[in-house]
Amino acid sequence: MSVQENIRRLDSQGVPVREIARRLGVSRTSAAKYAEQQDFSPAPPAPLARPGASVLAGFEHIIERWLIEDARRNRKQRHTVKRIFDRLVEEHGFTGTYSPVQRHVKKWLAANRQPGEGFTELVWPAGTVQVDFGQAEAIIAGIRQVLHILVVTFPFSNMRFVQAYRGETAECVAHGLRTVFEHIRAAPRHMVFDNATGIGNRVGTRVTETKLFGAFKLHYRSQSRYCNPYSGHEKGNVENAVGFLRRNFMVPEPEAATLEGLNKVLMARCDALATTVHYRKGLPLGELFAQDVAASMELPGIGFDAVRYESRKADKTGNLLIDGNTYAAGPVFHGRMLTVGLGHDVVQILDEHSEPVRTFPRVFGKQAETVFDPASLVPLLVTKPGAWSHSPLRALVTDPVRDWLDKATATGRRRLFNAVDAASSAAGFDAAVAAADTLIQRGDAPDMAMLGMLARRLADGTEPPAANVDLCL
Fold it and tell me: How far is C-alpha 179 from the chain's CA centre?
């Protein structure tokens, strides 16, 4: 039994306080205290005052004035405790340490919170999704890359889906949502977005959306809502999912031959989450997700083509500037007004009659080199063979072809470029160069007919290795 309990027991038996103290070996003061105490009900712990606050005497009003003024400033340019401490030292000769300043600021902020501050738990109905981007590294075709992962979550069931892209454009968002919609065979009724997802933003009560995403919503009949700035808690389910999927699906960094292959793997891993149990509801996610799908809408018969079209005028070399990168339509298109189709992974250039003329992989970020189709530059070299010495094609042909062209006359170069141009139309630029390489190594002149025939055979895979070509022709 505890000492206090023994004191109380002996006191209830009528034993004097002096005798209780002697028997239990405690002081008379302690024996009297516990014998006479009326209330033993638990009491909340009393805060312990930290010493050192006296060094702030005379500085409290300065700190509080700065904190009050912060309420009128942009939240990203308000005082931190470190900045307050530095200003006290530099401007007011404060000689104390950082800790009492930190404690005073913390106490003042806690005492001056507004009643409406804080967060409330949000309830999400079935058929609603939250959408956000995160970043993660992956190895695609042997190259480590930073990818932008589009995460789509269903807060009701906590089912999560992810697709990886090289950018965060409206085209990427629309393509990713279409992929998820078609995978689950339904279109959610409501979509909640962050202001930074590339499809739109909200300033106060005004929402501005891109034309492409407006068409996407019309296509699937879904509605959108945008969170307040700096309010990630309004879509906390997807915020948590970004970290969860990155830690569980992309550690270690996944490897794939193509981005499309990686996305198929990621989707399969997302499907496997259906067997896990909801952290609160105690049911498998798959059962809850069935309610999400049931509350969603049927898909239209046609998938949405996430392409944004813009007009661009080609410069004197036939190049177009698109999102800060240069793409070569070809010299023949110099000075012409062209249409550019921007997809999530390709850039398509169309002529004045909307006929496709070039298709390139889309470049995200800044690239110093011009993106071009080698075959588009060959016709210019036919008419201007002297430009060969500084042409971008020099780095793309084999050494034998480069050496031959360097030594050839203008007529010889024109003849080879004519042959390569004709063969490229039928078999592709790479096959045409490979055929020219084979003929040059054999010692034959790059005749147009022979080069075209050999290029077609190389493209079809019917041509044997170069060492045996002379036995087959």
Answer: 17
Tens of pLDDT, residues 359-418: 888 988 888 888 888 888 888 888 888 888 888 888 888 898 899 898 888 888 888 888
Q: Is 53 left (phi over 0), alpha (psi -120 to 50) or beta?
A: alpha
- Helix (H) and strand (E) counts in the chain: 16, 14
pLDDT in tens, 289-334: 999 999 999 999 899 999 999 999 999 988 999 888 999 888 889 9
Please check whether residue 458 is in contact with residue 427, taking contact to mean a CB–CB distance below 8 angstroms.
yes
d(CA 470, CA 100): 89
Q: How do the residues of the chain divide into helix, strand and coil, expressed in percent and rounded to 5?
A: 50, 20, 35
Q: From CA 63, how far away is CA 104, in angstroms rounded?
A: 9
Q: Compute, in degrees rounded to 10, the torsion defined by CA atoms 421, 426, 431, 434.
A: -50
Calpha distance 144→146 (Å, rounded): 7
Instruction: State the average pLDDT for the chain.
Output: 86
State the first-to-last Cα distance of the chain, in angstroms, to the nearest integer.
108
Q: Which pair of structure tokens corresponds to residue 251?
A: 């550690």
Q: What is the CA radius of gyration of the chain?
A: 37
Distance CA 212, CA 175 (A): 11
